[in-house]
Specification:
heterodimer; A: 2 strands; B: 183 residues; transmembrane (chain B)
Chain lengths: 256, 183
């Protein structure tokens, strides 16, 4: 696939495969896993530095940390769930947001240059955790019958089409929802990474004799894509958390 | 590099990007669990405590400012009341002073009038007394002179006779009466 005659190493699925860095008990440890662990240390490290010895009069780092924390808490959780109901989910949502965001940002960090969330396993794990959270919450709030009424959108006034609606809602909420939740993040990062790799590789590949202007164009595109990706990374983290909140809100809502 | 790419390309054929790899799922779960645990147990309680402290501090500050404002208001009112009272007092004093001054002037004027009248009366009585003294002295002198003159003219002493007849006195009385009449 990478060899189509002209020698241009076009990016493809192989861009998402990595040689193992080392092997532990038969399992390969690769770049994705390394970046995942570094993400954990980075997120905790930053917020430890910011909030570890929090002061009433904040330092610069604490101020930045507080701004990020406040953005998720007030801007996402309180907005969707309200202050009273939402308070309980703030730690979960804050973790989700910064974990995902840093995973995405790896895409443009030199040496790393790979968004960890473009590997389906990562969004899938997170979407699964959200899914389990709101499903169990629905059970707890509404009981067994209430759970089915809640996720099937049971509404007597629909009359004859009610079974159809219930069937669609059931599949939509229970099965499609977690899938789209994970794939939305995955696909955005996947596509972004492909674009970045393509323009980066092209800038290098085109760098000979009369093709140099084209290389320049490609390089400018790379820069533009990096800026665009920085935006997409933040937006996708935001969207993921916002959706998680709205699912939980659906679970908490009284059925009517 | 080329060999690696070839190998990866070979793997790619059986690669489905939507099928997660077990180890990655595991690592992802653990990584997120760690992040969540730290936020949940340590970092967010930490910052929430501080935010709460800050909130109470700000509220305390606002309350304090409110109290100070109220106090300032009461002090201002008190001050204004005192000022009004002082103004009133000053007006009263001025009024009183004016009245007192007027009374004093009137009294002084009356006193002056009285003294003037006294002085004038004293002057009058003095003049009267002087006049009387002068008149009696004059009468004696004139009598004596006239007697002497008459004695010299007549050549004999008429003194005794004159004293007996009181002629001179009568004459002088006549003169006085005339003078009174012409005055």
């Amino acid at each position: 696939m990478s060899d189509n005659g002209c020698g241009f190493p076009a990016p493809g699925l192989h861009s998402f495969l990595f040689q193992p860095l080392f092997t532990v008990g038969g399992y390969e440890f690769n770049k994705v896993m390394l970046l995942t662990l570094i993400t954990t240390f980075l997120v905790i490290g930053f917020f430890w530095a910011a909030f570890g010895k929090a002061k009433v009069v904040p330092g610069k780092l604490q101020m930045i940390g507080e701004a990020g924390y406040d953005f998720v808490r007030r801007g996402i959780v309180y907005e969707t769930l309200g202050k009273r109901e939402g308070e309980k989910y703030v730690p979960f949502m804050v973790s989700l947001f910064f974990f995902i965001w840093i995973m995405n940002v790896w895409s443009v960090i030199p040496l790393a240059q790979f968004p960890v969330s473009s590997v389906i396993a990562v969004p899938m794990v997170l979407a699964a955790i959200v899914w389990i959270t709101w499903i169990s919450l629905t059970f707890k709030r509404h009981g067994f019958v209430g759970f089915f009424k809640n996720i099937t959108g049971y509404d007597k006034s629909l009359g004859a089409v009610l079974p159809l609606v219930m069937l669609i809602e059931f599949f939509s909420n229970l099965l499609v929802r977690p899938f789209t939740h994970a794939v939305r993040l995955f696909a955005n990062m996947f596509a972004g990474h492909l674009m970045l790799v393509m323009f980066t590789v092209a800038s290098w590949y085109l760098l000979n004799s009369w093709m140099i202007p084209a290389a320049g164009v490609s390089f400018v595109m790379t820069m533009a894509m990096i800026c665009f990706e920085l935006f997409v990374q933040a937006v996708q983290a935001y969207v993921f958390v916002l959706l998680a909140c709205s699912y939980i809100q659906g679970a908490l809502a009284e059925h009517h | 590099m080329i060999a690696n790419l070839a190998q990866l390309a070979a793997e790619e054929t059986k690669q489905n990007p939507l099928v997660p790899a077990g180890p990655e799922l595991l690592i992802g779960t653990i990584a997120f669990a760690i992040v969540f645990f730290f936020f949940w147990k340590k970092l967010l309680p930490n910052i929430n405590k501080v935010l709460e402290e800050r909130r109470t501090a700000i509220e305390g500050g606002i309350e304090e400012a409110e109290a100070m404002k109220v106090e300032a208001q009461s002090v201002l009112e008190q001050y204004k009341a005192q000022l009004a009272e002082a103004r009133h007092e000053a007006a009263r004093l001025r009024q009183e002073a004016q009245e007192q001054g007027a009374a004093l002037i009137a009294e002084m004027r009356a006193e002056g009038q009285r003294q003037r009248e006294e002085i004038v009366a004293a002057g009058h009585s003095q003049i009267e007394a002087d006049r009387k003294a002068a008149a009696s002295a004059l009468r004696q002198d004139v009598g004596k002179l006239a007697t002497e003159l008459a004695g010299k003219l007549v050549g004999e002493s008429l003194e005794d006779h004159a004293r007996q007849s009181r002629v001179i006195d009568r004459f002088l009385d006549d003169l006085e009466e005339k003078a009174e009449a012409t005055r």
